[in-house]
Amino acid sequence: MADVIPPDSHKRAGVQGGEKSGKVADFRYKRPAQPDRSKSGKRHKRAAPASDARTQNRDSRHRNAPRRRKQAYAALDLGTNNCRLLIARPSGGNFTVIDAFSRVVRLGEGLAKSGRLSDAAMERTLGALKICADKLRKRNVRLARSVATEACRRAANGMEFVHRDRQETGIALDIISAQEEARLAVLGCHILLEGSAGPAVIFDIGGGSTELILIEPGGAVPKILDWQSVPWGVVSLTDTVGRTEDGRDTRLQRYREMRRVVADSFAPFAERIAGTAENGDDINLLGTSGTVTTLASLHLQLPHYDRRAVDGLIVPSASMRDISTRLSAMSLEERGTLPCIGPDRAELIVAGCAILESILDIWPAARLGVADRGIREGILRSLMTADLQGEESRRALKKAHHG
């Protein structure tokens, strides 16, 4: 059984600002083993990989860990546009995802103009959170962390929504700072830069904000050299610039205005990293967001989205620019017919393209790494590492006491 159900309900809901990054072990991401089919057609489970926690008798850290280390951990990320949940178990130096949930809730719809979360948006989001709460109970989750980002940070009634969510679902949302959001994004996806030399920028295009982080690769956790968060995501930028798409010329003018708005916000960060960006071939770029995974799917001409094909993909930046330019000129109906976009992403993808091109302007890496991982994976690593370190500390104290 989890310690508390829902497992994060003992935590105080509210704003957690100014959290600093500690040293965090580097848990990798693994998928659950899929069943094989023998020639007879019967289903058999694949043998557990050597890195599975069940076979870690060579690693004293895992050999001595209590049985409860095999219990589940959960991370919930409530953004401006999406509600996403991951539930996973540690597996050696990795973790295996055992359950997941994702739904477009559009929590921040209309926020840019009204400054408040609408009743309809809150109802949609609460419906998704109730599903998440049910999964947390059923999966015997030991520890969970649930975070809310830009929509709840900006909304005048953000805290009211957090309190209502706690009462109706039992989930305690932490409204995290932009700095913590950036840190978790880095922690969740930086391993895709392993083996890269030179500085890198990791970016996360959300629904209500975009985070840019300059890092120095290497080590279990990279060093963050500089960062910036701007209040422009696919929802907030679309709402601010407007949704009118009548005619090709109007669409192109709208796209240019999006580019201008974002570039102005990026200017301070661009100025600070200008000298580093001049390194040319030695710089790296990694993006985590629905925008980059969608454009990567179009680059691969996938008939439908496939995480296995997209996560970790390296794409020429020129190709991403070309796709962005073509999408900006298309009508809403034309974009909606494209594979991997559909009606759900058709309206917002153009704003994501404008943000991406603005990032490429200030950090002109020849290639772009694509990550279908981010804040949730960063939360899971933090939870698992903190719990493991706590167990080791308790065992050391117990040994010293009895010694």
Description:
By secondary structure, the chain is of the alpha/beta class. The chain folds into two domains: 14-176, ATPase, nucleotide binding domain (Nucleotidyltransferase, domain 5, 2-Layer Sandwich), CATH 3.30.420; 180-372, Nucleotidyltransferase, domain 5, CATH 3.30.420. Helix content is 43%, strand content 21%. It has 15 helices and 15 strands. The chain has helices at 60-63, 111-114, 119-138, 150-154, 158-169, 178-189, 234-241, 248-277, 290-300, 307-310, 317-329, 332-336, 342-346, 349-362, 375-402; strands at 14-16, 28-30, 35-37, 43-45, 72-78, 82-91, 94-104, 141-148, 173-176, 200-205, 210-216, 223-230, 284-288, 314-316, 367-371. The strands form three sheets. A seven-stranded mixed beta sheet has the order 1-9-8-5-6-7-2, sandwiched between helices. A six-stranded mixed beta sheet has the order 12-11-10-13-15-14, with helices on both faces. A hairpin with a 2-residue loop joins strand 6 and strand 7. Residues 1-68 have low confidence and may be disordered.
